[in-house]
Design a protein that fits this description.
heterodimer; A: alpha/beta; Rossmann fold; 5-stranded parallel β-sheet; B: alpha+beta; Beta Polymerase, domain 2; Cytochrome-c3 Hydrogenase, chain B; 5-stranded mixed β-sheet; 3-stranded antiparallel β-sheet; 19 helices; 43% helix
Amino acid sequence: MIYILKNRILKGIVTKHIEPGLVKTVESAGWELKSLIQERFGRSLSIRQVDTGSCGACQSEIIAANNPLYDLQRFGISFVASPRHADALLVTGCVSKNMLIALKKTYAAMPEPKFVITCGDCAFDGGGFKDSYYICEEVKNILPVALHIPGCPPRPLEIIQVLLRFLRKME
Amino acid sequence: MDGSEIISSIKKILPDFSALLAAQDYPDEISIKVTPRIFKDTALALHKILPSPVMMLFAVDQRKLSGVFTVNAVFVHLRQKQWIILNMDIAQESPYFDSLAKNIHSAALFEREIWEMFGIAPKGNPDLRRMNLHNEVWPEGNFPLRKDFKKNTSGNLSDYKFNSVVGTGIFEVPVGPVHAGIIGPGHFRFSVAGEPIVNLEIRLGFTHRGVEKLFEGKSPPEALALAECVCGDSSFAYSVAFAMAAEKIAGIAVSEKAVYLRGIFLELERIYNHVNDISGIATDVGFSFPAAYAALIKEAILQLNDALTASRYLKRVNVIGGVLIDIDAAKKAILLDSLKRIKKDFQELVRMLNSSVSFMDRVDHTGVLIRKTAADLGVVGLIARASGIPTDLRRYFSVIHKQAKFKMMTQECGDVLSRLELRFSEFVESCRLIEEFATKLSGSPEVKVNPVLKPASALGYAEGCRGPVLCWLKTDAQGFIDRCKIVDPSSHNWQALAYAVLGNIIPDFPVCNKSFNLSYPGNDL
């Protein structure tokens, strides 16, 4: 306990420790995001992530977007454990035949209104795997995709910025 | 031990053994060709002499050229620094061979894979259920890795049969493929009697993308980008293993500086994964402050990677023949300076975790994988070391690690705590290695180019964060890839998880799973 308290005090607010330029971008993007979410989604936007055949790098960056430095949650975006709690479905990876049913079922389990986000180049058009015998169509031909976050993998900050740009435009 | 010595020691066990062909193809690789009749006995003899699990077992379709399927079994002789590739030709009219599975457990899953991908039957294997091509979506009788495979498949779909445990008071708990966290897909079927788990069946293959088929027909430099995307958190280890195989075929010896740079980047990849796993273990027992603290250390390492190479996951750094990104004096200063802070933070993290009695209570003697089970299953890499098996490719195969007096870490108990403490000590050792390697950097990391234009094969390997990443490459006469077989350490180790959780309660499964931290995409390919 003593070490936890010590480190808590020593570390302070971590966002100050890292490159000041970066912190500023995260903060300004994030707070604008929060006010938009307040306005459009009634305080919070809940996202359910599904991996349909990614290499794991996109997940790693989504997890990084939730670490104390970027801390997406403070802006009102939370990643939830069940599709029943979710407003949006976040798909990573090309769609393997084995995951097609699970993907459709996960989407069907979400309450209306709902929308789909794809994250990473593989989820957009199959990336390097699109010619494979085991890859289904692109996600956008399976589910109505509202937003794509490009990158291989997209950086945490890019994930936040793309979400922000999207919410600005959203009616 | 060279080819002749191996053969004489096989002869001690099999007096009438004779090889069709035995050759030292590369300084670290011996190939032995035998007839199908004695393949099984020879494999069993090698398994016993070396001793080595079956590190790889795979088929190659050569029907167009010579009318045969070739089956290769790869063993490793750690002390002698040799890979032994045992192979045989199987006539296309009779596509079957004698199964090794009942004698060597580590061959079992490979044989199932050969069956589903090539339609070559391992006679006597008790379990030939499909792994990656799920019965529900992939019709019977379509073998994608055969050269004459056509994309439009036809045939009957069926259901997958789980092993079931029956009896009074036994409940089945199915979990997945979509899990609660931000994580890959897999299906876990627990059978519980009251609280303790009596059986766990793991069904994987959900992220199967047909990677091995995609390699075929590509040129090696083009395929390197694909190799980096097989498993996102080990992309550098994959690119090193792939590049090494291509370099062996092309006869390229990479420059000394490139060897050191690869050493540094491999260790950087290892430490961000280790600290990520430590964070996961803390999260899964609900110890959130150290988990967040570890996540910050991981972020610091990723940002260091970014500063050095402009890629957080070290992609597009490695090429066949060398390394594209140099670490000059300025970058070296960034590296050493960041590492100093990372090491200090890590020390605090270890202290926090070690000083919490309730945390220790959760991880001590949880998820035990005893040494005997680990050895029988042919477990590799970090999981094997945590159960007391001394195996690490860096210790045996790498010259630069030997010069740096690399200390291989092992633990004895095989529980979550052992795997955690092993990560602690490996993290510290990796940081030391990076500092050591950084002092050795000199000259320029010139990239050597020598296009491959011949039919040849070679094995590339690298010790990734989970264990040995293996890549066997075969090129055709034009230098294009004819077959690329990849084996991730996870594919050896997933079965071990099912044994480690027995007798534990389901709420402890996440922490056991995280302490293994096996890869879904690396296993499913």
